[in-house]
Write a structure and sequence with these properties.
The complex is a heterodimer of chains A (295) and B (555).
Chain A lengths: L23 E2 L13 E3 L2 H8 L13 H5 L12 E7 L1 E4 L22 E3 H8 L20 E6 L6 H21 L4 E6 L3 H6 L1 H5 L4 E5 L1 E7 L5 E7 L2 E7 L1 E5 L6 H9 L6 H5 L6 E3 L5 E4 L3
Parallel strand pairs in A: 4-14, 5-12, 6-7, 6-12, 7-8
Antiparallel strand pairs in A: 1-2, 9-10, 10-11, 13-14
Chain B lengths: L4 E5 L3 H12 L3 E5 L27 H6 L3 E4 L2 E9 L2 E8 L14 H5 L3 E3 L8 E3 L1 E5 L3 E4 L6 H5 L6 H9 L3 H9 L5 H7 L3 H5 L11 H14 L16 E5 L3 H12 L3 E5 L8 H4 L8 H12 L3 E4 L10 H7 L2 E4 L5 E2 L15 H9 L9 E5 L3 H13 L3 E6 L10 H10 L2 E4 L1 E9 L2 E15 L5 E5 L5 E4 L2 E4 L3 E2 L33 E3 L2 H4 L4 H24 L1
Parallel strand pairs in B: 1-2, 2-3, 10-11, 10-13, 11-12, 13-24, 15-16, 15-22, 16-17
Antiparallel strand pairs in B: 4-5, 6-7, 8-9, 14-23, 18-19, 19-20, 19-21
The chains are: A alpha/beta (295), B alpha/beta (555).
Amino acid sequence: MTYEKKGRYIVEFQDIPKARQHHIEIPVEERIGNNNEVELGFDEERALKEAKRCLSCRRCLGCALCWAECKPEAINFEMQDEYLDLEADTIIISPGVERPLNRVAPHLGLGKNQNVMTDLQMERMLSQTGPSGGLVLRPYDGEIPMSVAFVQGYASASPQMHKSALFLGINEAILVRRKLPNAQISFFAQDLAAFMEEQKDALKALDKIEVREAAVTALEPLESQSLQLTIGSNGSQETKSFDLVVILTQPQLAPDVKNLSKKLGLDMSYASFLAQEGSGLISTDKDTLKLTAIL
Amino acid sequence: MSGKRVIIFGGDPAGVAAALEQAEAGMQVTLVESFPGLGGECIPQTRIISGDDAFVDPNMEAVLRHPNIRVIDSAQVQKTVASNGNFQLKLKRRTPRVDREKCNDCKACIKVCPIHMYDDFNEGVGFRTAIDYFNPRTGYNIFKEDMPICQATCPANLDIRSYVGLIADGKYAESLAKIRERLPFALSIGRVCPHPCETACNRGYMDEPISICTLKRYVADYEMKEDIKAPVEVPDEFHKEKVAIIGAGPAGLTCGYFLAKAGYKSVCFEALPEPGGMFRYGIPEYRLPTPTLMREIDWICSHGIDLRCNTRIGKDISFEQIQKDFDAVFLGVGAHLGMKLQIKGEDMKGVVDGVDFLRDANMGKPVNAKGKVIVIGGGNVAMDAARVSWRAGFEEVHVLYRRTKKEMPASPWEIDAAEHEGVKFQYLVAPIEVVGENGQMKGLKCLRMELGEPDASGRRRPVPVEGSEFIVEAETLIPAIGQRPDLSFVPDGSGIDITRWNTFAVNHSNYMTNVPGVFSAGDVETGPDIAIKACAGGRKAADGIVRYLRSKRSK
């Protein structure tokens, strides 16, 4: 989506000066025979005028169009940040997970090819309240993909993290199958043996989803914007093309959660809470601090 | 009363479920979330789904309505104190600028908002507007943090939007502090930078770009004019490791500044009598006065840089000695060797290289300004040489360039200023021979050119016009056609990788050369480039050095 930048939307405020301010400089006749500084910069008046011209791009410009449009008069540009003091007897941290994109193997072309997306983006796409209202679409052209590959995007992770990423990926594959009954769906990951053994029964119920212990070693975009994957498993290699590729990302504990728990006197590593089975609260070594288990 | 107040951090489904559970058990619950709304991943990550049980969907509505639950979104924890078995916390809640009591979720604001950005609420899938909701049930807000085009274009990634905004608010000291988070040379860069940020500025689409560079200069000048003492913020104690910095130019001093901020002292060796590198000896006085530069350098050095001028590596102290005495070495010697024209008669009296000419002028050496002078080249060094010559009192100053004004790499305002001052430009002319008598030059034999096909740089290649030879009479010739680094100080056995452009090869993740503990940035690593790029390199190298020293210590 693009929009015209040419001032179409910018409301002219009295206090946004129009013309660019120019620096003060000494006249040419005063320059010869000496090395005095030529440009003298701004005086305060010019500096203030010039600074107010800045549009603070890609952030609210203060154009006030929404303010003018809002019937219940809910928009208030004067509203200030608040500082709150709270007291508590017990603190519960719901740590969630973060999935850093810089850990995704570069050869999978995330960010270079529009039809390569992360598992989190797929999660949003599958959500009824998400950006596509729950439809699975190819980002490049908005077409319905006829083949979807889920590909492990990290080299290795702790067993708990790996398991969590596999659950998310498999569940997404199941949901994509429900939306696209005729699409070909493949799932390529490594270190699958233990997981497949443990989840034998649930995996048996999968509806035509190919789950394979394999590594994707190369990804080539095709002219149709589909992606050709080079898949290596058991020492053999094959190439196969897919309309959409979903990368399984490596879950980890978010740095701000780490900081917060450290400040509260708790040493928390991701593995320690993911290892807990079931739902509800997880106790820590401190009575007044608890964690929520991942759902 | 005690034992009943619960704070839950994290408004994801697990946090929301916990909030409901606690509230039902009779607790007073506060649910704190850093995002501007509740929500999160709803696909289970601990089991394989089956049937209708596909999503985790906590009752968001119930959380918002429950009398015992207070939801605080867009909140950051600023301070935590744990005492007597309970916790005291200080939170900062970023304003939504939308009164959620009044908002009726009609979405009219979203339809009119002109700002479209990748939807960070939805992992960048699709677009959203500056006023939007993360979750309509928890409310709307006006919100955006992203790197705007000016900041992304600046080699040092200065937070332009913030420091310009602070100037608009009249907060000059805060603005300067913001600049100094990433650049110590506000006074100097504010004067000499060719400001690629302004070329990129979005306001240019509307009328003219913001004068970013002059605004930066304004806040730095304000501090100087009002004689405010610039704050020196360094750790109370320095680490025991020491770093050697070779070359007191933009890259070296910036590196030393950020090393000091990280708690490492450095010793800076400079071959020339005064610090500043190209700021001091390349940029003419009329663009950057020496007292202004020295004020800035004194302040930078006061952070913990021991400056030793008149110390040339390889002559006054050996490179091996430095490697032995220091825990890390930073090489920022710049590119001070002028390129040769490769024509006959170039060694005659009267021919002075542009870099040498500017250095002598900046050292205050008298210029033999008699008759006419020819400057060859179309870059900013050529413009500087021409304008300095004009000031020195040559009768006529001619700039010869082999393409046209359109292709000149110099900043357009520098060309305009030179023209304004009376410098004469001759385009489509190339020198072929320096002519003279008894070793003194008397003129320059030239050829007319015309533009042919575009070359590798995308500019049209000049082609000589046959039989168009002519002579320009002049007593002085200043070739300013490019520079390269002088690497003669590095001993043969050092083993540092050198590129085919005669620059140091570094790993750009930490700016270390192939020799452990030897780092490099600035013109000697990039080849001749703009000052702020050297400063940016110096800062990144300082980061690399800090990481290197830490990892060395932990071994």
